[in-house]
Every structure is written in structure tokens, then in C-alpha cells.
Amino acid sequence: LQADLARRDFTVNAMAASLTPGTGYMTLIDPLHGQVDLEDGVLRALHAGSFRDDATRVFRAARYASRLGFRVDPATAEWIGQDGHHLDAISPDRLRHEFDRCWDEPEPEAALELLHAWGALTAVHEALSWTGETSKGFGLARTSRPSDVPRDSV
Prior knowledge:
mainly alpha, two-stranded antiparallel sheet, 9 helices
């Protein structure tokens, strides 16, 4: 179990509960202090090579941080910056899947802003960017209803 938890992406995902009947049933197993990070709203990668081992973790970091309102641990952000270039090793199909997951977030623009800030979008393709204006427009489009658009303008 310890080895399995040590292979997770972030401390908040590296917790388990004992399912052994008896006195230890449902005891939290938290060798990497994920509960503290969960309570503090911190997203922390487990080790410096985390994003090199699996570059899609950059996308997960952006999604989790934006969805949960977590701040990214400074060392984790540094590791993303150092190893973001490994995103070019992800297959096009897997990249599309990661972007699809971003679009499925309640506020996709927040995740995409983080990816842009970390240089991940340009690491995927030099033409990709996300600006404050893009976020604003996307947020408006996401929250608008068809009834908000005057009929004579369609």
C-alpha cells in the first residue's frame, strides 16, 4: 500500500483507509500528509520527477487547482515549469482527451489560465495561448443563455 500511495500524483490523492475489520477499520493511512494539504487547500506533487514521469499530471494539476480553489505548492509549480516540455511526448489522442477534460470542468477558463501561466499551452503547440480577454469572453459565453441574445441580431 505504501508503495502504491507513493506513486500517486498529488499528496491529496495519496491517502487510503484501512478496510480490515476490527480496531483499525476505516483508519486513515496518510504517509505523505495529504490530509494537511487538503485542509490547507494546497496541491503538492509527490516528487521532482512527477511531471517527467507523466506529463498529463500538468493538466490534472490545473483542473484540480481550479476546480477546488487550491493553490499550487511553489515547488510543484517550479517542477511544472522545469518539466512542462515533456508535454510534447503525449500522443495527440491523449492530449485531446486532456483538453476535453478541461472543457468539462465547471469553469474551464480557470484551468486553461493556469496551463497558459505555466507555459503548458505553448509547450503543446506554439500557437496556443489563453489571455485574460479569452477567459472573460469564454466565461460570458459559458454563462449566457440563448434568451440573452436579442432575436434580431441572429
